[in-house]
Structures are given as structure tokens and as C-alpha cells.
Amino acid sequence: MDIRDLLQKRILIIDGAMGTMIQRYKLSEADYRGERFKDWPSDIKGNNDLLCLTQPQIIKEIHKEYLKAGADILETNTFNAQRISLADYHMEHLSYEINLAAAGIAKEAVKEFESQNPKSKIQNPKFVAGAIGPMNKTLSLSPDVNNPGYRALTFDDALNAYYEQVKGLVEGGVDLLLIETIFDTLNAKAAIFAIKKYFREHPLTPDTGEGREKAELPIMISGTITDASGRTLSGQTLEAFYTSVVHAKPLSIGLNCALGAKEMRPHIEELSQIASCYVSAYPNAGLPNAMGEYDERPEDTAHYLEDWAKEGFVNIVGGCCGTTPDHIKHIAEHVKNLKPRELPILEEAY
Fold it and tell me: pTM of the entire structure?
């Protein structure tokens, strides 16, 4: 079943935090290194994407927990898996390999889940979204306060890094591509360009199951509003952000991270009123406490998202930082009988 057909019928559930779940395993430096990287010259603990190569069974276990909780969309463990961010660990050359492996792990988790739940494949199909994070460098802002014109990387640097990541994800078998946690829209533009460029050079074959020609995979785009001002970190309003990326004709545009559901509500309401595509929302488990931990209860997060669904704001919901399979389970239960947001009828969609 095509995800667009499913989105017309019900609200879909995207999974929760990967990093939060990895932390539960209390992995050591040796665990991150595994046998392959035991002699790596620098510390690599914290490089969660590398676990796709050194601890793939852990990543698969996390994926399966989210599937059991009711997730319809799994995100690959590739948030920082492009060479710009991997340079922190001197592992730029592993970008393609990590993305390829991550996609395969997520697809394998879905396959195993469906083998144990045979009705799911037909009645409740699962999708794997290739997660493309914002990078640890920005194209719009200078890291040097004394030189506002300086940039840590060029647009072509970002484009090429994202292209390599997209190649690994697509060849690994993902169903969707998710550009997420966008704080600098120019970085997102580079990711969009990379996706479009890849599919111009490698168009998909016709989907014989649905009889539809598919030149490329659906794109999901999710930005980040950093505070009550309603702007991204690079200074754009929500409407300006939407206008900047809607040309990509995405499956969905939404918000994630930075804010808890309570604080995100007015921004999701605004987005639902202007978006011509589907709207996604996966907030943090509240705001972090004094210790930097997220302690919003699953039932509280679910209550907020249920309210959004009743108001007709959303089509895809889930969780970001601090959320767990328990959060996703509660969210899924709270929205399962609610109607998805209807797409507006516009003279010109894009």
C-alpha cells in the first residue's frame, strides 16, 4: 500500500527517540568500538550512528520495540551519518557504509515484525524513513562572532555530503526520506537538492504493485522552532520556512525537537492552516529538567497529541528527544480512532 493512501485513512505514527533508547544500554567506549574499531586513534563513544556497524543487534532491538508499540514509520539510525558530522570522529569515509547498513537494519526489523504479525503487512504496513539530520555546521550563520561573513562549509560541501548519505539510504532500501530537525533552512535546501539530484541520476522503476510511475521516494521535511518567538535558529518564521521548502513537493512538512508538545501547539496549529501537504509533529517529552533529562509521562505527551488530532492539526505524530516506546504506545492508542487532518483544497498546491 502506498503511504499516501494510508494517510487519507488515518493518522500515522512515527517512532520515538533513538538516542534516549541507546542511553539505556549504558554502552562503553569498547562497546562503541567493537572488534573492527578497537584500535581507532580517537574516542568514538557517542557516535550513535556507528552502532549500525558495531552493535547492529541493539539498533534492531530498538526498532522492534517501536514497532511493537505501534509505530508505522521507523527512522533509520543515521541522524549524523554524513561526512561533515562524522569528521568529529575522523570517520568521514564511513558515511555511505553506515547509511546502507542502517537502512538494512530497519528493513530487517520490519521484516521480522511482519513475520511475527502476518496481518500487519496487509492491514497495517510499516515504512522505513531514511533520517537526514541538520549537520553540525550551518550554511547561514558564522561560527566566528568577529567575522559574520565566514562560513564553516560551502553549499557544495553540504550537497555532496548529503548526496552520499542519500545514496546509502536509498540503496539500503528505505521507503521515505526524512529531512529533520531543521534549524537552518539553507542546510535543508542542500539536502533537498541532493535528493533531487540523486533521483534525476537514478530514477526509481515503476511501482508495479500500485501501477504508479515513481521517479523518486517521498520526502518528509521537519523543522525546529527553538523558542516562543516561533522562529528557527537561523531566524525564519514558520511561514517563511514553509514557503522556502514547499517547492520540493514533500509528502509532509512538520515540526520536531526543541520544544515539548505544550509549547509546540501554537506552531503546529499555524502550520496546519498554511500547509498544502500532510503535517507531521513529533515533539520532545516536555522540556528538559535541571539535570537535562526529560521526564514528561507518556500519558501526558499522548494527551497533548490527542488534542491536536481532535482539532484536525496533524496527519503524522510521534516523539523526539526523551520519548520511548511507552510514549509511542500511548500516542498510538490515543489517536487511533481520530480522523486525520484533511488536505486543503487550493487553486495551486505548490
Answer: 0.94
Q: Which residues contact 315 (CB under 8 A, 6 or more apart)?
A: 7, 11, 12, 252, 278, 279, 280, 340, 341
Which ranges in 295-335 belong to alpha helices (H)? Answer: 298-310, 325-335
pLDDT tens digits for range 263-319: 999 999 999 999 999 999 999 999 999 888 999 999 999 999 999 999 999 999 999
Cell readout for 174 is 528505505
Contact 260, 296 (CB under 8 A): yes
| All domains of the chain in start order, with CATH | 3-20+60-335 (3.20.20.330)
Q: Give the single-character DSSP code of 87.
A: G
Residues 6+ apart with CB under 8 A from 124: 72
The answer to whether 15 and 66 are in contact (CB under 8 A) is yes
Identify residue 167 by its one-letter amino acid code: K
Q: At 312, list the grid cell.
A: 484536525
**CA atoms of 51 and 330, how far apart (whole Å):** 28
Judged on CB neighbours under 10 Å (0-12, 13-18, 19+), 43 is exposed
